[in-house]
Amino acid sequence: MSSQSFSFSPDSLRAMAQDILDHARARGASACETDISEGCGQSVTVRLGEVETIEYNRDKAAGVTVYLGQRRGHASTSDFSPEALRATVDAALSIARFTAPDEAAGLPEPELLAREAPDLDLYHPWDLTVPEAIELARRCEAASFAVSPRVKNSEGASVSAQQSHFVAANSLGFMGGYASSRHFISCSVIAGEGDAMQRDDWYSSRRDPAELAQPEALGEYAARRALARLGARKIATCEVPVIFEAPLAAALIGNFAYAASGGSLYRKSSFLLDSLGTQVFSPQVHISERPRLPRGLASSPFDDDGVATHDREVVAAGVLQGYFLSTYSARKLGMRTTGKAGGAHNLLVRPGERDLAGLAALMGRGLLVTELLGQGVNYVTGDYSRGACGYWVENGEIGHPVEEITIAGNLREMLRGIVAVGSDVLVRGSKQVGSILVERMTVAGA
């Protein structure tokens, strides 16, 4: 994979975007915005040493949004010919003519648009052949089986290399875009036999393939996690402290971000309504947003509206400082956009001094959760109930594995009841956080 894998140059995408804007203006649109993107990649999966799948992907899309005053229409196409792009503009205009006016519709305020786009070092194409990818996957899976004869089976090891580029533009003079890449190696294995089998997995994802974990290390760790779950049993129903392992702690922060997003707020479907300036987390929680973090998995110099991104403190000493607002949702709420069309950018939760073992020692007795099942989150009330697996902690030591349980609480109380954040920060996506210790939850078991 290399930059030569793209079929269209950045200049070609820019020319298409300008043609769309010009055609929309000529056809009477009062405003227009467009996003033109192309992506390509390959993925290989090996199971039990044999190649199971080889997949190539090549995708392209052009989205066009036009405005007739405050009437909005949107259409998209995967055909980049001039005729198809102009037909897409016409289709969007046709939709807009039959759409009811919306006071919040329209482009961002011109002064908020990004006028410069620093290089955030997001593009690192992986020059990886299929035979090389197969070899990496085999090494990863083989390392799992080498850990113990009790590792009996595999769901496969996968290697994926992906890259894309895009141009976004609007009729206010904004035009920007960049290339990015994202690669991963993963492994999922099964230990034990008969009714006593357990599975677990692990993966690494980065912009730069040089920063991926070694395949042998991934395979070995996935195997050790599966082995550690052998002999899992139920526990009696109780109310105890709960540790969310780092990957699940990221999901917990994701629950908060969803509740604090403009769409949830203006629809009045969030337990965080009217929470700005109030104590949402415990005082030791600090969350920063760093949209321009070099090589960040959610970095961008501008959001999907073209609004410039900026560093900010989302939560300071537990107090909510700002929502996640796009241009549209901000107008619906009578507020100002925070540059979050398309989602949050690199939420960093300040780590504490204790690692996972240290959090267990601090907790003393309770549950360490390493897997969550099902949905079970009501964002209107904050009620939280998820199936779970993990480990029982006794006298500060991680003990026997636990399965077939449910953990329940209320997000409002859970966030305020965070006792500590771990130092074991895991970088996989848009949320970077260590394991989180919550003061008390209900664990429903036998």
List the helices and strands and how they pair.
Elements: H1 10-26, E1 31-47, E2 50-68, E3 71-77, H2 82-97, H3 130-147, E4 151-170, E5 175-191, E6 198-206, H4 215-228, E7 238-244, H5 246-259, H6 262-266, E8 287-289, E9 312-316, E10 319-320, H7 327-333, E11 347-349, H8 356-363, E12 366-373, E13 383-394, E14 397-410, H9 411-416, E15 418-421, E16 431-432, E17 436-444
Parallel strand pairs: 7-12, 11-16
Antiparallel strand pairs: 1-2, 1-4, 2-3, 4-5, 5-6, 7-17, 8-9, 8-11, 9-10, 12-13, 13-14, 14-17, 15-17
Helix pairs in contact: 1-2, 3-4
Q: Given the structure, what is the number of helices?
A: 9
Coarse structural class: alpha+beta
Query: Got a strand count?
Result: 17
Mean pLDDT, all residues: 96
| Spatial order of the strands forming the largest sheet | 3-2-1-4-5-6
Portion in strands = 35-45%
Instruction: Please bin the fraction of helical residues.
Output: 10-25%
- Which spans of ≥5 residues are poorly predicted at pLDDT below 50? none
Question: How would you sum up the global shape?
Answer: globular
